[in-house]
Design goal:
The protein has 235 residues and is α/β, with parallel strands linked by helices. It has a domain at 75-143. 31% of the residues lie in helices and 24% in strands. The chain has helices spanning 44-51, 83-93, 98-111, 127-139, 157-169, 181-187, 217-222, and strands spanning 2-11, 21-29, 33-37, 59-63, 67-70, 145-149, 173-178, 190-195, 198-204.
Length: 235
């Protein structure tokens, strides 16, 4: 069942001559994990912010339910004295009864295995812990769609592995932008490739046995990407 539709989306930043996105059309099915892949500067972050309603397209139409977005730099989302207060912030602003807030906060923290972080100041957390805290702050609002921009960018290998396992467990529709193609291979049902603000290709992904364009070295190099490490030949 179709969940999100973008039709002929264009977007330009005033300070740049070249458009960030040109004529991008995409649909996302309910409970699908769509990964948006491309080299730095290809338009991934702009597309996700349009999907999440953070910015409006210069041209085109969008139909989307409520989205919760975790930005690439999660420090932009963690600004309260403690993780507990950060996670509670969204529902407190909605007027949730104080007696319901505590249970909701700890349910959100449990969902990302981060109850032990509740009383910690965000600035003391590792990259992986900050990701979990930011996710809890979004999940507590029960978004229909979870949007993540380069979620593995600042993570060490263990934190990255844990993040992949966590995202697999979450049942909601997920849209993930990344140039980490091994993460894309692990999580995506379908991958949309961007290059210079345009769709360069689209491919279903069914794991390592049927990775679609993720195994096409010529295509990937043509848009500034490399094969996932999974497909590199051993020396």
């Amino acid at each position: 069942m179709e969940h999100i539709r973008l039709s002929n989306i264009c977007f330009s930043y005033e300070r740049y001559a070249s458009p960030a996105l040109t004529d991008v059309s995409v649909t996302v099915e309910r409970h699908e994990t769509l990964c948006v892949a491309g080299a730095n500067g290809c338009g991934k972050s702009t597309l996700l912010q349009i999907m999440a309603g953070c910015i409006k397209p210069t041209q085109g139409e969008i139909s989307a339910p409520g989205c919760g977005i975790v930005f690439q730099d999660v420090d932009h989302q963690l600004f309260m004295p403690t993780v507990w207060e950060d996670v509670a912030f969204g529902i407190l602003k909605k007027g949730t009864r104080p007696e319901d807030v505590r249970e909701a906060v700890f349910e959100a923290l449990r969902s990302v295995e981060a109850e032990h972080l509740a009383e910690k100041p965000p600035y003391t957390l590792s990259g992986g812990e900050k990701q979990r805290a930011a996710l809890a702050g979004i999940l507590i609002t029960r978004p229909d769609v979870l949007v993540l921009d380069e979620p593995s960018a600042s993570l060490d290998p263990r934190a990255r592995k844990n993040l992949i396992a966590l995202l697999r467990r979450l049942p909601c529709t997920k849209i993930i932008a990344s140039h980490d193609l091994d993460l894309v291979l692990e999580l995506a049902d379908r991958v949309l490739f961007l290059c210079d603000g345009r769709i360069a290709g689209e491919s279903p992904v069914m794991g390592r046995t049927a990775p679609g364009l993720l195994a096409d070295e010529t295509f990937l190099q043509g848009i500034g990407l490399e094969l996932p490490l999974t497909f590199w030949d051993a020396p």
